[in-house]
Amino acid sequence: MTNRSRGMRRTALTQTALTQAAWMQTAFIAGPLCMAAYGAIRLSDPTHGPNLAWISGHIAMVAGVLLFGAIFLGLTRLSEPTTRASRVSARAAAFLGLAGVVSVTAQGVIDIVVGFRADDRAGMQRLFEGIQSQPGVMPAVYTVGPTLFSVGLVWLTVQLAVQRRIRAWRPALVVLGTATMLTSLDLMPLGALFFCAALSPLGRGIAASRTAPVRLV
Fold first, then answer.
1. What is the pLDDT of residue 174?
2. What whole-number distance in Å separates Cα of residue 176 and Cα of residue 9?
3. Which of 34, 23, 3 is nearest to 196 (CA)?
4. How far is CA 182 from the centre of its chain?
5. Which pLDDT tens digit goes with each residue over 135-172?
């Protein structure tokens, strides 16, 4: 391999790392903000569909949840290098979180489709009943599945705090945000802001975390 080809390869790797870093920074900020947008749009719509607010709000929700897929992968990377047990633990937490992402995304897509198909709130209710009556849909999409999102997120942030990769108040804010959202969907914007405060600064150094010294953030 010539010096020129080595230089081109290093340049390509550097550009890839910069792209990953930019994507991570975007995801860690935009994910919680999309959830906050969904909560705000929901509060502005007293009828709760079917209308433009219902559709746009749920599109924002799905976008936010999908961005949390990148956040789970980023948090897992932040936990490395580490011991084998810690690595297995982080990956298990990420797996649960990503399973929750799939469940909540499915729920959001169903809400969007129902919003497009129904003519009124009664029609939405009939469509929801037909979908939710299918075997396995309720636990996978509405009850058990979505809780995995919260379990994975809390697990990962607590582990990072124990490893001293992040400060202890960050998982505390994640727990507070989760509890706020579970209390009432009307509190979704507040809970999402707790997530944003806890997570948004973490995306900056994650792409380089394999080689950079561990810093408490």
1. 97
2. 45
3. 34
4. 15
5. 999 999 999 999 999 999 999 999 999 999 999 999 99
Rg (CA), the chain: 20
**Which residues in the chain come in under a pLDDT of 70?**
1-22, 205-216
pTM of the model: 0.87
* Long-range contacts at 30-33 (CB < 8 A, ≥ 24 apart): 30/63, 30/64, 30/67, 31/64, 31/65, 31/67, 31/68, 31/70, 31/71, 31/195, 31/199, 32/64, 32/192, 32/193, 32/195, 32/196, 32/199, 32/200, 33/64, 33/192, 33/196
Note the pLDDT of residue 2. 58
* Integer Cα distance of 28 and 121 in angstroms: 35
CA distance to 7, 94, 130, 165, per residue, from 98 (Å): 37, 6, 27, 21
Q: Residue 92 corresponds to which tokens in the numbers above?
A: 């298990």
- The torsion angles phi and psi of 44, rounded to 5 degrees, stand at -80, -5
